[in-house]
């Protein structure tokens, strides 16, 4: 089944990532040019005002395609947002080892490693942000030594990236202590994904386990940690298990409301259902840099619960949400009509349904439906006199 899903993802990748191209970044820090692969979403050309989160991949030579495939599949089902992918090439003459050079005593980038660190922060990221429409939300990922290397960006007073995907990292000295100390102090949301294989050697696994444990002890609710250990996997095969888990972890709030979210997070509320919906999409925008209108299916899920719980006053908030995201559609006026109807005020309900009938249909809401509601409310109003 997993092979079928992977095949399907690769099959549709051309349509989801319409542009895959190569570029060369001239670097004063490295004293050489560095080749990169760029993946632009299918909507990039047709949505000229849209901005996209960016995923930077160290070891882009072999991580680009599996990340692209996982994103393709998630985007197809609207579980993951469209993103710009930047793969950094590092496979030339041991380049990845030179790029990851550290001082073993200090546990910090050293010589060529320090140059590569500066290249990413001072040259590559500004270059991409100048050339493309990027949202503020940035993720960086790597595998083994490069997975360790990306953590150095966390050492900065203001970390450059918002999300970190560390696949079986060969952690630098003191890293299992320094990262939790940093996370204990952060005041903005961070996403941290950490994975290992049960086939990893002890030298790799033990520091990873200490790191995960220390992050949990730091217990900062702003740090969204997920730690996976995959059974029956190797240092290399665990990458394919990790990638979708990492992406779905970071973009958990982006997914449409499913049965688990509804049961565990919405249905347990005593009130504030409309606020939950608003906060979900505000988080997408403010934290992830993803601006999309509230999905109609999500809207209906919350509306149905409001009706079931007789929380009719919340329909006014639902109308506010609808008027922001769908100002030309009849959804907002319909919600107000529904509120007045449920409150037993058919005259006001009829007026709102009349307003809705002059606006654009949306979802299951049509003009014929509004006309039927108007007739129904007018009849109720006459009978109540």
TrEMBL record:
<protein>
    <submittedName>
        <fullName>Histidine kinase</fullName>
    </submittedName>
</protein>
<dbReference type="Pfam" id="PF00756">
    <property type="entry name" value="Esterase"/>
</dbReference>
<keyword id="KW-0418">Kinase</keyword>
<keyword id="KW-0808">Transferase</keyword>
<keyword id="KW-0732">Signal</keyword>
<dbReference type="GO" id="GO:0016301">
    <property type="term" value="F:kinase activity"/>
</dbReference>
<dbReference type="InterPro" id="IPR000801">
    <property type="entry name" value="Esterase-like"/>
</dbReference>
<feature type="signal peptide">
    <location>
        <begin position="1"/>
        <end position="18"/>
    </location>
</feature>
<dbReference type="InterPro" id="IPR029058">
    <property type="entry name" value="AB_hydrolase_fold"/>
</dbReference>
<dbReference type="InterPro" id="IPR050583">
    <property type="entry name" value="Mycobacterial_A85_antigen"/>
</dbReference>
<dbReference type="InterPro" id="IPR011990">
    <property type="entry name" value="TPR-like_helical_dom_sf"/>
</dbReference>
């Amino acid at each position: 089944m997993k092979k079928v899903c992977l095949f399907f993802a690769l099959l549709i990748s051309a349509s989801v990532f319409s542009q895959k191209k190569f570029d060369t970044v001239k670097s004063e820090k490295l004293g050489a040019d560095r080749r990169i692969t760029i993946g632009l979403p299918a909507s990039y050309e047709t949505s000229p005002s849209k901005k996209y989160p960016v995923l930077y991949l160290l070891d882009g030579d072999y991580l680009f395609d599996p990340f692209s495939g996982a994103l393709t599949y998630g985007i197809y089902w609207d579980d993951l947002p469209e993103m710009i992918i930047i793969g950094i090439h590092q496979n030339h003459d041991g380049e990845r080892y030179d790029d990851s050079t550290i001082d073993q005593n200090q546990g910090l980038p050293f010589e060529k490693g320090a140059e590569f660190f500066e290249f990413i922060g001072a040259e590559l990221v500004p270059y991409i942000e100048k050339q493309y429409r990027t949202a503020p939300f940035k993720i960086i990922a790597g595998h083994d030594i490069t997975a360790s290397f990306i953590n150095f960006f966390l050492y900065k007073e203001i970390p450059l990236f918002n999300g970190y995907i560390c696949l079986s990292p060969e952690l630098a000295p003191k890293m299992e202590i320094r990262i939790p100390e940093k996370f204990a102090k952060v005041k903005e949301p961070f996403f941290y994904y950490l994975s290992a294989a049960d086939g990893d050697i002890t030298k790799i696994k033990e520091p990873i386990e200490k790191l995960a444990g220390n992050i949990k002890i730091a217990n900062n609710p702003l740090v969204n940690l997920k730690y996976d250990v995959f059974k029956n996997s190797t240092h290399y095969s665990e990458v394919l298990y990790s990638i979708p888990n990492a992406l779905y972890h970071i973009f958990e709030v982006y997914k449409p409301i499913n049965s688990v979210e509804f049961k565990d997070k919405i249905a347990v509320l005593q009130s504030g259902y409309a606020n939950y919906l608003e906060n979900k999409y505000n988080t997408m925008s403010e934290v992830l840099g993803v601006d999309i209108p509230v999905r109609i299916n999500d809207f209906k899920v919350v509306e149905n619960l409001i009706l079931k719980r007789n929380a009719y006053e919340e329909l006014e908030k639902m109308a506010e949400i609808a008027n922001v995201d769908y100002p030309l559609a009849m959804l907002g006026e319909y919600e107000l009509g529904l509120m007045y109807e449920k409150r037993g005020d058919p005259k006001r309900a009829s007026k709102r349904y009349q307003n809705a009938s002059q606006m654009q249909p949306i979802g299951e809401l049509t003009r014929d439906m509004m006309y039927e509601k108007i007739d129904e409310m007018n009849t109720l109003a006459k009978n109540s006199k």
